[in-house]
Fold this sequence. Notes:
Elements: E1 2-10, H1 13-25, E2 30-33, E3 47-48, E4 58-59, H2 60-73, E5 77-79, E6 83-87, E7 93-97, E8 102-110, E9 114-116, H3 124-127, E10 132-133, H4 136-139, E11 147-151, H5 155-164, E12 170-175, H6 184-191, E13 196-200, E14 202-212, E15 215-225, E16 231-235, E17 238-241, E18 245-247, E19 278-280, H7 292-312
Parallel strand pairs: 1-2, 1-8, 2-5, 8-19, 10-17, 11-12, 11-17, 12-13
Antiparallel strand pairs: 3-4, 6-7, 7-8, 9-18, 14-15, 15-16
Helix pairs in contact: 1-2, 1-7, 5-6
Amino acid sequence: MSEHHKVIIIGSGPAGFTAGIYSSRALLDTVIFEGNQPGGQLTITTEVENFPGFPQGVQGPEFMEQLRQQAQKFGAKSIYENIVKVDFSHQPFDIWSDRQTHYTADAVIIATGATARRLHGKGEDKYWGFGISACATCDGFFFRDSNIYVVGGGDSAMEEAHYLTHFGKKVTLVHRRSEFRASKIMIERAKSNPKIDWLLNSVIEEFLGEENFGVKKLTGLRIKNVVSGEMYDVQADGVFYAIGHDPNTQTFKGIINMDETGYIVTEGKTSHTNVKGVFACGDVQDQTYRQAITAAGSGCMAAIDAERFLSDHN
């Protein structure tokens, strides 16, 4: 037995839900597979202040639930299964979930997003979203006049540190080596900024904090010098990871064209992939901006591209 739908969206979050809104409003039979993390990365984010239309901000989980309800209002259906196998060699496309259920679709939109690389240190899970972040553009505003730490040694770390100096009173770069992968110009730019300090040959061993009346807050870090073995604590209000993201594209390897880092390659300014009838949107194909608003915009594009493809192919 198999279940057929006109449009199958793999992944949720701002990209998947927005694609669902537009696809279902076009009167296309649409289902959204929400996967292992229904609602995407924003479900583990506290407050979203930079999405247009929410002047008072909105909690990440609440925002995703509103997008889900909006998509369902127009007829989109959420399925809480994870897609583990696809066959895009013919149409309709074949798709299998982790419950060994078989689905077919005339068009597929991939919106599986990307996952920030993490250190997996002690206390990280507890304070993730409560002082630990992987997006300076998203969360830097919350750390005005604070002591901020940035983890990483590449161009992204230098860029994030420089950006965060607009908010923090001091930004410290933590790197496990004394040399950097970053380009010389980015290193010099960071070194010339008086608000940036350096903590080299060092790693974060533990994230320290407090919890009052159910509210968690990061307050410090336990640092280990990898050369001397010395351990000591520092006061910290926020930590930003700049050690990269991994696109959630494992299921599509060898089927959909990707760049050397695993991000799906789309054609020009469209959401079209190399397979006709398969589209990609959001962080799974965007390693530059990685914002909720840009993900939502590309979700709209993917739904419109899918509707036009289906119209052209009857």
